[in-house]
Protein: Putrescine--pyruvate aminotransferase
Organism: Sinobacterium norvegicum
Amino acid sequence: MTNIIYPTTNLLHTEQMVVSHGEGIYVYDKAGKQYLEGMAGLWCTSLGYGNKELIETSTQQMEKLTFSHMFGGKTHQPGMDLADKLAEMVPVTDAKIFFGNSGSDANDTHIKLLRYYFNAIGQPQKQKIITRERAYHGVTVAAGSLTSLPANLQHFDAPLDALGILRTDHPHYFSGHLPGESEAEFVTRITDNLEQLIIREGADTIAAFIAEPITGASGVIVPPEGYYQKVQEVLNRHGILFWTDEVITGFGRTGNDFGCTTMGIEKPDMMTFAKQLSSAYFPISASVIRGDIYEAMREQSNNVGVFGHGYTYSGHPVGCAIALKTMEIYQRDNIFSQAADTGAYLQQKLATLRQHPMVAEVRGKGLIAAVELCADAAASKNTKLGELTNIAAANCQANGLILRPVAGNSIAICPPLIITTAQIDELVDKLTLSLNQL
Ligand code: PMP
C-alpha cells in the first residue's frame, strides 16, 4: 500500500504496476519487464518516451527561465511563438489562444470565455451548452459536468445545475440504432433530436455544442458518414457555436492534423487541446477561439476592467518551449502523414479481429481504435461484459502490451504516433493472443 489516492481507479484495487522507465514506444516495470505502450500513456505520448530533443529543450528552457506568468500582459518568447504557431496550424478563423495545464481546465476556460463573450455582446442569457451522451470532457467540476460517463457524474452530485448543460444523442450507430434503421436514418433521427432540443430550450439560451470529433474514453466512437455535416447545418440554422474538443484527436491522431479535418467539420469556432500538444513532456493545454470572439471580449474589458480568469501556470515557459519543439518535430519529420500511413495499416490489421468470437465491433481512424467485446461471449462465460473487458486488458498486460479497458465494454488502442508497422504487428499479435486466452 502507498499513501496515494489513485485517480480513476476502483479504490479497492490494491494491485499496482510500478512503471520504472520508458524508451521509444516501450515502458518497463520495476522488474525490468518490457511493455509496448499501446495507449501512449493516456492518449498523449505521441513522440514516445525519452525523446532527446524534447529533453534538451526542456533543460535549456529550465536553465534560461524556469518560470514566468502571463498575468497583466507579461509574456515570453516561447509563449508568443507557440501561440503564433498554433494560430497558423488550426482551422479556427483568426485564432486566439489561452494556455492552461490540462484538458479539463482548458474546457473550463472555454465555458468561462463563452459567458464572458455573450455578456460582452449583450446576450447574457445565451449560456447553456449542449454535450452528448457518452462524452468525456474532463473531470473538474465544470468540465466534469460536460462529461456524460456515469462514473464521472454519479457520487459527485454532478452535473452542476447552474451550468445549464443539455445532453443529446451519441452518434454510435452500432449501439444506438433502432431495429432495421439504416445509418442514414439514424443520423437523420439523432440530428432531428438535436434540433428539437434546441427549439424546446430556445436557441437564444444556448451558447455552444461541444463534441470530440471521435470520442476516446467512451470507446472510440466514429460517427457515421454525414453526421457532422447535419450537425453543422442545425447549429448554423440556430446560431450556436461549434466547439471541438481535440484533447485526444488533435495533432495527427486520426490520420490528419486534427480530428475535425478527418470528420469533415469545417472551421470550428472553438477548439481544446492538451496531451499531444507537448507529447506529454509537460502539462499544457490550449483553449482556442475565433478572433472576433476575442475582439468582443476586449470590448467588454473596456467596460468591466480585468478579464478575471487565469492559472498560475497559464503559459508556463517550459511547457510552451516543449510544445513549440513538439510542433517543430511534427512538421519537420512529417509525423502526421507517417501516422496516417501506419494508422491505415493498424485499421487494416485490426479488421481481421471482426471475425473473432469474443469481438462485437472494431472501430477507429488513423492511430486510434477500439475493440468492443461481445455480450454473448460474456454470457457464455457467466460473467459481466465489463469484467470480461478488464480481463482482456489484464491478459494484454501479462503479454507485454498496455491497452486500456474503456466505457462501452471496449479495449482502446492509441499507440504513440511514432509506432512502426513492425511494432503494429507486435501490438495486434499480442492483442489477438490475449483475446484467444479469454
Ligand atoms: N477532453 C477529452 C476529449 C479527453 O479525452 C480528456 C482526457 N482524457 C480531457 C478532455 C481531460 O483532459 P485532462 O485529463 O488533461 O484534464
